[in-house]
Structure formats: C-alpha cells, structure tokens
Amino acid sequence: MAQAPRRTRRHDPNRRQRIIDAALEVLAADGVAGITHRAIGTAADVPLGSITYHFANLADIVDAAFETHVARLADRFATRLAACDSPDDVIECIVAAVTDDLAGHPHELAITYELYGDAVRRSQTKQVTQHWMTLAEDALAQHFPRPTARLLDVVVEGLMVHMSIAQQQISKGEVRALLTIAAHAGQAAYESGTDLGVEVDADHQFVKPTLQEKT
After folding, report:
1. In angstroms, rounded to a whole number, what is the distance separating the alpha carbons of residues 23 and 74?
2. Based on C-alpha coordinates, what's the Rg of the chain?
3. What is the maximum span of the chain, computed from C-alpha positions, in angstroms?
4. Which of helix, strand or coil describes residue 109?
5. H-helix or E-strand spanning residue 206
6. How many Cβ atoms sit within 10 Å of the Cβ of residue 49?
7. Which of 167, 166, 138 is nearest to 152 (CA)?
8. What does the alpha-carbon distance between residue 173 and residue 168 come to, in Å, rounded to a whole number?
9. CA dist 78 → 9, 84, 183 (Å)
10. CA atoms within 13 A on the CB side of 116
11. Which option is the CATH number for 63-192: 3.30.1060.10, 1.10.10.10, 1.10.357.10, 1.25.40.20?
12. 189: CB partners within 8 A, 6+ apart
C-alpha cells in the first residue's frame, strides 16, 4: 500500500507580523473585548496553533499590537514634522497628522481610542501609551520649547479622543485654530516670564523639583 505524500509545511516567515496585523483589525472592529484566538486566526488566516506558538497568551498579542500601532503613529508623526521649518509650517503639519493621517483612517482612530481605554486598566498598555506621548512630545520639541510642545501634545491627544467619539466631526479649520491658539498661548506664557509653577532650564526642558523643593 502506497504511503500518502507528506504534507509540505507552508513557508510563512511573516506569520507573526500577520497575526499582529490581524489583531489590529480585530481591535479596530471589536475592541479589546473582541480579541480572541479564533477571531485573530480567522482574520490572519492561520491555525490557532500558530497563534499560541508565537504568543503565550492574548495579553501578549494585545501588547504587540498596541506597540506596533504606536510605532507606526510615532514614525509618521515625526516624519510629518521633520519636513517642516517655520512654526506656521509645523502647525500645518500637525493639522495634517491629525486630520489626514489619523482621522482619515477610522480604523487607526478606533485602535487609538482602544489604546487609551486599555491604558486605564493595564499597566503595560499605560507604558505603551506613555511611550507614544513621549515620542510625540519629542517630535514637537524639535520646533517649540518643551512647555509649548507638551501643551500641543495634550491638545493633539484630546483631539484624537474627540474624533473617536464625536457624532459631529471637528473640521480641519477648527483643528488648525485650536492648535494655533495653543501654540501662541504657550509661547506667550513662556516668553512673558509668568510663574507657571514649573521651572524650565536653558534648553527649554522641564526641571523636576527636588524633594526638598516639593516640601
């Protein structure tokens, strides 16, 4: 009796990344609550065994998915800002990053909202979220003093949440106006010498108060 031919193993070197991308699809459609091995396996077109081979548990998949999402966001944001020179140009770059790059891709907006929501409950996701905010602020600090960069980052973060849940979307003109107001207000407060309750060094970095200063 002839033996049945051996089944050829499928060569799939990018399977781990495909699983992560599939998890991002599930996050965008169904949120963290929708993350299951079966849902990811269906989206990635891989057997369940492949998922458990690459990831110990679902939390590891969620972590990898959020880390990938943040890396893509941060890289695109930094690339946008690196192409700009004057403060006015930078504002336009931030507007494009918010309205074209993010709001123009609803699935990414949904994933970002899931990122923020999960950060409230899980320390690992909070670290990933903090990494994203730090990278965004660092990119802005290439063009503005650190206090203004932080203010603009707070506005950007707020706009991202707003765009995720608002029934009436904010227009590009409104986004531009809000960012311009924040940039001008931040610069004016910084240059006026007003006591803002924080110290800034010669390199426009926040100076953390010592324990003695706090008391």
Report:
1. 19
2. 22
3. 92
4. helix
5. strand 206-207
6. 10
7. 138
8. 14
9. 41, 10, 18
10. 14
11. 1.10.357.10
12. 147, 196
Query: Exposed, middle or buried by CB within 10 Å (0-12, 13-18, 19+), for 57?
Result: exposed
- What's the rounded Cα separation, in Å, for the pair 196 and 46? 55
Residue 180 structure tokens? 């311009």
At 7-65, the pLDDT tens digits run: 444 556 789 999 999 999 999 999 999 999 999 999 999 999 999 999 999 999 999 99
**H-run or E-run covering 164:** helix 146-165
- Cβ–Cβ < 8 Å for 206, 182: no
Distance CA 187, CA 214 (A): 26
User: Which residues are bridge partners to 153 per DSSP?
Assistant: none
Q: Are the CB atoms for 24 and 110 separated by under 8 Å? A: no
pTM beyond cutoff 0.85: no
Measured from the Cβ of residue 25, the count of other Cβ atoms closer than 10 Å reads 17
In the DSSP assignment, the letter for residue 200 is E
CA distance 98 to 115: 16
**Tens-digit pLDDT profile for residues 101-149:** 887 788 998 999 999 999 999 999 999 999 999 999 999 999 988 888 9
